[in-house]
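Protein data:
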Amino acid sequence: MSSPETPHKGDILVVDDRPDNLRLLSAMLSEQGYKVRKVIKGEMTFDVAQVNPPDLILLDIFMPVMSGFEVCQQLKADERTSSIPVIFLSASDEPLDKVKAFAVGGQDYITKPFEISEVLARIEHQLRILQLQQQMKDQNQRLRAEIAERLKAEAALRQVNDELDERVQERTAALTHTNQQLKWMGQKLEQALAQEQDLNRLRSRIITTISHEYRTPMAIISSSTGILEDYFDQLTPTLRHKHLGRIQGAIQRMLALIDDVILLNRLEFDPVEVKLAPVPLASMMEAAVAEVHTTVAQPRQIAVTLQGDYLQPITDASLLQTVVINLISNACKFSPPDTPIEVSVNGQPQQFQITVKDHGMGIPTEEIESIFEPFFRASNTLNVQGVGMGMAIVQKCLDLLNATATVHSQIDVSC
């Protein structure tokens, strides 16, 4: 009996017009446990990759007939091969060649003559990224399936609600037409009303439960990067947690940026219906502060002071709360963690004013007028994380509310 084939670490396709390079790379990678396939002509690469896609391609740049740049462009243009990582191999150390390699879709660039350890490290890095991407893709598919199930449950709930509403209408009509028989039907009517109340309580319970369960997929999205720790078995625990923390932090920052961009785009380009209604400033401020506490990295002291006799202005609650959250979050971001954020609300008959004071680094006087522009960062804040979206969102909301904002600041003085 023949023994089962030993699993390989990955399927590598090496493309080089020099046989000695192919032999060297093939021997090196095979010794490390990789399955290696070789192609000596660039124009053959696409057909080979289509028939049996490899996990990664090592691609020489300067080859006759078809260069590595052209091969990479052809691979990336077809969705069947576009996701295969490409590492360029070249004797050229010219910056323009490196720039072009990345421009056509390459993931990495190794200069010949290469060190074996460097080639192995870069291959393992790209394969690890590919593995993590597949893990995230599988996780997203599971999440989409769960969301689809929940949407299906929601549709069923709406059907139940419609049936309940129909039954309520039928019972109301029956009661209207049988008023003369109320004494005779009193006992049966009480039973029907009791049953109706039970159905309404059941409907409320179902709505509450589903609403609560909707939080689960969002929590999974937030914590899913934690499962990637299992794949960093070649690192020490300290480095493993360090790299995982970076991945999670990057994902959170990208998601926050996407949310801010979408919100700013909606405020600027989509028709936004301003819903005017009395807004209790006290409860609105409490909710806004609670929201900020869930997003800041460290606990912050946020003091809110209410004054004035008109603390229920007619305005749009959602837009106003967005303004307050972004103002307080901005103050927290640029202030030392041990300093308080002071928020005061002053309600007057014809207007109300919300003031946020922090103890941060201040803004250069010549740059104050620019802080409400999208993506603007003050010149003295470049070491603080952010992309300059918060104050732009504030400005767009204020424009919709026909409100204005003013800024008072001095460098290195509380503002």
